[in-house]
Amino acid sequence: MSAKDKYQAVLELGEKLGIKEGKVSEENGVLKIKGTAATQYEKDILWDKIKAIGGEKPSDIMANISVEDASVYHRHTVKSGESLSKIAKHYYGDPMKYKQIFQANTNILKNPDLIHPDQVLVIPNL
Question: What is the pTM of this model?
Answer without folding.
Answer: 0.88
